Amino acid sequence: MHPFRVYDQTMGILAANEWHWWIAVVLTPATILTVLAVIGGYLFKVVKPKYPPRYKKQTPDI
Asked: Is the dihedral angle over the CA atoms 25, 28, 34, 40 positive or is it negative?
């Protein structure tokens, strides 16, 4: 077996491992932000209308 072939196989394995870690680095923050956005949207659209503010600002009659 040629030494460069062994080197290429080793580099291929390392590149696959490196690619795996970079996917995790990108997907983890995106997933966290998506979950927070869904929770925030639920609170804003569903929960907030159930509990209106206790007071309303006075609008001047024009």
From this structure: negative
Instruction: Give CA separation, 44 vs 8, 21, 31, 37, in Å.
Output: 54, 35, 20, 10
Through-space distance between the first and last CA atoms of the chain, rounded to whole angstroms: 91
- The tally of domains found in the chain comes to 1
Is 9 a domain residue? no
Segments forming the whole domain that contains residue 34: 21-48
Residue 8 has pLDDT above 60, yes or no: yes
C-alpha span between 23 and 7 (Å, rounded): 24
pTM above 0.70, yes or no: no
